[in-house]
Structures are given as structure tokens and as C-alpha cells.
Amino acid sequence: MKNENQNEKLDQLNTHSTSNENEKLTTNQGLKINNNQDSLKDGERGSTLLEDFILREKITHFDHERIPERIVHARGSGAHGVFKLSESLAEYTKAKFLTETGKETPVFVRFSTVAGSRGSTDLARDVRGFAVKFYTEEGNYDLVANNMPVFFIQDAMKFPDLVHAVKPEPDNEMPQAASAHDTFWDFISLMPESMHMIMWLMSDRAIPRSLRMMEGFGVHSFKFINDKGKVHFVKFHFKPKLGVHSVAWDEAQKISGTDPDFHRRDLWEAIENGAFPEWDFGVQLIPEEDEHKFDFDLLDPTKLVPEEEVPVQIVGTLTLNKNPNNFFAETEQIAFHPGHIIPGIDFSNDPLLQGRLFSYTDTQLSRLGSPNFHEIPINRSINTVHNNQRDGHMRQQIVKGKTSYEPNSIGGGCPFQAMMSEGGFTSHQERVSGDKIRKRSQSFVDHYSQAKLFYNSQSLPEQTHLQNALIFELSKVTIPEIRERLVGQLAFINKDLAKKVAGKVGVQVKKLKHPNQSLPADSNIEELQSEEREPDTKSSAALSMKDTVKDTIKSRKIGFIIANGADGKAVNSLKTKLEGEGAAVELIAPSLAAVKADDGSLLTPKHSLTSIASVCFDALYICAGAKSAKELMSPENKHHVLNFVNEAYKHCKALYFGADSKEIYNSSNVGQKKHEDPAVITWDTADAGKQFITAISNHRVWELEQERNT
Ligand code: HDD
User: Fold this and answer.
1) For the chain, first and last CA: distance in Å?
2) Mean of the per-residue pLDDT values for the chain?
3) Is the pLDDT score of 453 beyond 60?
4) Which of 170, 158, 247, 172 is nearest to 204 (CA)?
5) Ligand 1 closest atom vs CA 364
């Protein structure tokens, strides 16, 4: 039967797929194996014979089954999907997948953290990669994006330094998947250009609730070229239909222990359950002639274009609807490259992008081991490849014919160059002239205005989280001078922020002498870095998560804490209601044994109180029923139940206490509350089910965090 989510790329992958179902075990040469238990020996107790080709093949393959992990973005999770265009961009670009309304293009998306190794936790405080490979009819187009719209550095020359600084320190290989250490903050404190990105990195964006609930940004300005040769600068955006949501830092750290695969599992389960993650795809378009109309440089990747100045036009939907069949073959072997473009899209002169154009192919050569990495099934384009490149390690394609050069007459001149009208790619022709020079443009030197813009745009809870993140990170820095220098940088963004952080990390706010090696020697440091340069009042609503989408509980995970004697009717009716809204309900009981409800029905728990933690759920229902409540408050269970409740409360989640759970309520921290709290629903709340749903869709009551924690 044809899967309804099948697409051209999946059809192509099928031709490379195999299944072992009902098959006999063979060697790699197809020889059927009769004994996979014992090696060939010189007598039952004798030494193993060199002749044992079956053992040798098995061990040799095993010995070579690891490849180098990605130098950055090693930890990742991916899925197949489709991009559907809803508005034609033909006025701006000739890229076919963006011009034919209704057109569906197969995609593979890989999300990642940046700093950690392949096996590191998903919940590290980090940037998330959001790399999309569009398998278009004109060839592969890769949008190698992040979940933050700006970057740490302005020039690719600094990329190895940045990565060396954030990765585990070279002497002791610590810490894993964390920016909270000396070398990272040493580098950052000396690089004022990173301060805007640091605001994003210290914000809750760095600890997403789900990969399905984060934005994607192409970061650089790219170019769109239409069929008349007209150029627009373009910034790419993905906006999640479920809204942008995060977890608390305390929660993130606990999730890292309880379920380091939290994001990977969440993505996998959502797709398996048919709750396909979706994003609106949008563009900000700037006519070429307006390039210099902004108070920053469009080529500077540490700057964003505020949505108030250039709105994001939504033109399509990205949907992920199929999990990979094989992690290594697909998610690990996929090779992205910002240089994989198609007619109608071109690069800007952003010096970070220019460096990336070299780096990605280069890294695949060492990671995947051969210039034929494009032939690995997941990397193949859906249109066929024809050129005179040949041979090399692991060549798969068998190209017929005598010629592998051009021009040729023996092969009839094939393959031919394509004319532009036939889809032949031409780089956009533009006039360039300049001195050969190693110098940063003066238009790149304002490092603080947009850092301020970001900080000013945050709601109060978001600002508090950002301060606390800085305090946490800098508290792990052992060298006071580095802490002091970083606080000095913060003072250019917001004095109050600097003071608060300084007070907690044991340093003074001092005026910096700017040991900034990235500034041109002849720049006017005083003028460029004065905090008076921009008023502190500018803000942009789009930069805060406060007003993000909050109208759905689709795919949220709700834990029901139950025990024998639970009110079966209440449990089932709430469960049906929540599931009807698309949420996933999981039952948690004192053990994995079936729970006998008061009406005699059996409820099967998915978890026991000790096998999962509160941090793995978006909301909790403490089940109704006097007998159930009594068992939950027994000496054996009480501690676990209260821990669940207290953590959910601390992390600002929705809690619903069913009938007879008053003792649990009173014994927990919730019972101490003296404030109104719309996310605490009890046995006497009117229209409790509806209130619970509203509270879950609001994600968290961050605005009550202080009240809930005092
Ligand atoms: Fe990069 C991987 C995104 C700057 C060099 N990068 C990588 C991935 C993402 C990004 C999402 C993971 C792709 C995957 O899932 O396989 N990188 C970015 C963004 C950047 C950026 C949004 C700035 C706007 N990167 C950047 C620079 C360089 C690199 C400046 C080098 C000069 N990036 C790499 C790399 C990686 C990579 C070393 C590691 C694995 C890979 O490429 O395939 O080449």
C-alpha cells in the first residue's frame, strides 16, 4: 500500500532500502551462514583459525563502523517531510519550488545542538541547528539554518576560534555540551561583536521545550533573482505553528539526567503519533536598491532585520511527516551545505557566509570519507546527475560511455551545458571593485544596539531568565578577570543587567578598556561603543516569546497520577477531552501493575512514580478518588507524588487536583500559595476541564514564577 506521505525522495530511497524480514543470514558476499555463534577453531578448545573468513568479515566491519562525528552540530535528530508553497514568489525569484503555488517539494530536516558530542544531552543550553534539504526538481537546495537569527561572529576567519572556545577545554576535555566554562567566556568577553548573539543564547530560546516549538532562521541575507535579473535581499524564517516555547533551566538540567534524548524522543513520538510538526515558511524581502537604508549592514550576520521594519511574508508550510528508517544512513550521513543552491537564489557578500561556502564540502570529505558523498542515498538529488567527474573512493554510479571530458566529439558532446532558459545556473552578474584588503567594514562596528533591542523586547520573566542564565554561566568561570570583563560588556547593553549579574558573580561593573581585537585599528572606540548611541527604549514584539501562539494543547504531554480506587469515570472523561484536543495523556502509578479503578475497570500505567519525572510532562492531573488519594499519600508513595507536584509547580506548569486530593494539595507547595493562579485547577474550580486546557495551552505561568517559588 502506498503511504500517503510518500514522495519522490522517499521513492528514491526505497530503491536503496532492504529489510531482513523472513530472510536468511548471509555474509556481505551473499553466502548463507549456518553458524553465527562460534568461530572456526582448531578443536573445540583450540585456537581460532585465520581461515575463518566469516569471523574476519564480521569483526572487520565492526571495527570500522564509526565515522568522525560532525565537528559542530554532532548531536542531531532528523525527519522527512514536505514543503508546500502557498504564495508564489515569482516576482522575486525564479527558483521553481518557490514559484508554482501548491507545489510540494520533499525535504529532510536535521535539528541539532552545536557544542556537544553525538551522545550528549538534548537539553544543553545551546543554539539549535535547523538544517533543511529541499529535494527540488532543479537540484538540492540546502537552507542550513539555526533557531536564532544572528551569529556570534562577523567573519568566518573567527569560526575555528569560536568553536575551540566553546568546545570542551583541550587539556581535560571538560565540560561536555556546555558553554559554562572559562575558555568560552574568555573569548566572548574579548569579542563585543558576539554580544547580540549572547543575549539570544542566554535567553530561553536556548532551552526549547521541543524541536517542534522553535523558529528557524537562515541568518544571512541571501539574494533572490527573478527571471528578469532583478535582485532582492532575502532573510528566511520558519515559524512553528505550535508557537515558540521553552522549559525552565532547572527543568532542563533535570531532563538531561532523566531523559537525555528528550527532544529526539519528542520529535519521533510526535511523528509516529501523526502529530506532524509544522512551520510557516516566510521571507523578508528587501529590494537591492534599499541595501543601505538600514542603520546596520545587511551583510553583517550579527544583525537581524526587525520585523517591524520589514514584515515576514508567509509563503508556504513545512511539515515533517515521516521518521527515518535508519538513523545512520539518513540522519548521520546527510550532508548539508549553504553552497547547495539553485537558479533564482544566490549568496550575498556576508563574510561569514562566504567562509561557510568553503567549509561544508571540506568537512564532508573527512566526515564521510570521499568526494562521492553526494551518492549516498540521502544526499542524492531527485533529478539525475550528469557530469564528467569520475572515480574516487566508493563510487556508486556506473557511467556508460568512453568520454569523461568536455568538449568531446566521441560522446556526441554530452553532457551538454544547459542554457539559462533550460535551467542552467549562472551566478548573478554584478560589478565588484575594491582593494585587496584584510579589514572589517566600518559599517559592522555597532555591536550593542541590537543586543539592547533584544533585551528591551523581552518580557519581565524572560529578562529574569536571561539574567539568571548569565549568572549561572559566569559562576562557572574560575578566572575573576573574565567575569569582570564580560560584566563590562553587559554594561553597554543594560546597566541594571550588568549590576545584577556582577552582584552575583562577585565582581564590580568597571568601564572597559576594550581589548577588542576584532575592531579596525582606526575605528573610534569611544563613539562606537558608547551606551548613549541608541536610546534604551527601542523594542520589537517579534523578539519576545510572550505573545507567541498559545491556542493549542496539541501534542502536549499530560501526566495523570493515579492509584487503585481512582475515579474511573473522571479519569476517562478528562483523558478523552484532552486527547480530543490532540494532547497525549500518560498514566503514572505507584507501579507498572494495572490500576483497578473504582468502577472495576483496569487502567494501564505507562510509567511508575520512580521510572519517570515531573519534568517530562507539560501538566499534571492528580487523580480523583478517595482511595486513590490515600494510596498516593502512603509512606511509600508520598515523597514521589509530592516531588512530582512540587516540581511541576516550581516550573510554572498547569496542575489539576481532582476530587479528594485535598491532602495532596495541602501537603505540597501548592497549598502554601497566597496568590491567584489560573494554572492551578482544583476540585471546586468551575468548568475545570476547560480551565485546565486553557492553562496548558498558555504553556507556563512564567509571570507567577516568583510567587510560586517563594
Ligand atoms: Fe555551520 C554544520 C548552521 C556558521 C562550518 N552549521 C552546521 C549545521 C548547521 C549549521 C545547522 C548542521 C548541519 C547538519 O545538521 O548536518 N553554521 C550554521 C549557521 C551559521 C554557521 C546558521 C551562521 C550563520 N558553520 C558556520 C561557519 C562555518 C561553519 C562560519 C565555518 C567557516 N557548520 C560548519 C561545518 C559543519 C557545520 C564545520 C559541521 C558539520 C557539517 O558542517 O556538515 O562545516
Assistant:
1) 58
2) 95
3) yes
4) 247
5) 43
pLDDT band per the 50, 70, 90 thresholds, residue 4: confident
Which atom in ligand 1 lies closest to the alpha carbon of residue 111?
Answer: 15
**Closest residue by CA, ligand 1 atom 15:** 110
Q: DSSP class of residue 328? A: I
If we measure between CA atoms, which residue out of 698, 700, 203, 201 comes closest to residue 464? 203
Taking the CA of residue 129 as reference, the ligand 1 atom at the shortest distance is 11
Q: Which residues contact 639 (CB under 8 A, 6 or more apart)?
A: none
Q: Report pLDDT for 538.
A: 84
The pick from 110, 114, 133, 144 for probing ligand 1's pocket by mutation, whose C-beta has the most ligand atoms within 8 angstroms, reads: 144
CB atoms within 10 A of CB 34: 8
Residue having the nearest C-alpha atom to atom 26 of ligand 1: 356
Look-up of cell digits 486546557: 693
The closest residue, in CA terms, to atom 11 on ligand 1 is: 129
Supply the pTM of this predicted model.
0.97
Instruction: Concatenate the DSSP letters of all residues of 405-420 into one string.
Output: SSS-STTTTPSPPPPG
Does the pLDDT value for residue 499 go beyond 90? yes
Q: For residue 461, is pLDDT > 80?
A: yes
Q: How confident is the model over 64-74, as pLDDT tens digits?
A: 999 999 999 99
User: How far from chain centre, in Å, is Cα 609?
Assistant: 30
- Residues with beta carbon inside 6 Å of ligand 1? 70-73, 76, 110, 112, 129, 131, 144-146, 151, 156, 159, 219-220, 301, 335-336, 352, 355-356, 359-360, 363
User: Separation of 163 CA from ligand 1 center, angstroms?
Assistant: 11
Closest ligand 1 atom, residue 145 Cα = 22
How many of the other CB atoms lie within 10 Å of CB of 434?
5
**669 catalytically annotated:** no
73 is an active site residue: yes
Going from the N-terminus, what domains does the chain have, and what CATH number goes with each?
Answer: 76-379 (2.40.180.10), 447-543 (1.20.1370.20), 557-708 (3.40.50.880)
From 140, 146, 321, 379, active-site residue: 146
- CA 429 vs CA 98, 139, 223, 230, 704: distances in Å: 22, 21, 12, 11, 56
Model ipTM?
A: 0.99
Q: What is the mean pLDDT of residues 668-688?
A: 96
* Residues 558, 531 contacting (CB under 8 angstroms): no
Neighbours of 466 (CB within 10 A): 25
DSSP 3-state helix, strand, coil percentages of the chain (rounded to 5)?
A: 35, 15, 50
The neighbour count for residue 74, using CB atoms within 10 Å, is: 20
**What's the pLDDT at 527?**
58
CA-nearest of 161, 211, 205 to 186 is: 161
Asked if 349 contacts 231 with a C-beta cutoff of 8 angstroms, the reply is no
Residue 470 has pLDDT above 60, yes or no: yes
How much is the pLDDT for 1?
Answer: 38
Look at residue 535 and tell me whether its pLDDT is greater than 90: no
294-319 residue pLDDT tens: 999 999 999 999 999 999 999 999 99
DSSP annotation string for 633-672: TSTTTHHHHHHHHHHHHHTT-EEEE-TT-HHHHHHSGGGG
Residue nearest to atom 1 of ligand 1 (CA): 356
Query: What average pLDDT does the segment 448-454 reach?
Result: 94
DSSP 8-state assignment for residue 97: G
C-alpha cell at 103: 507545489
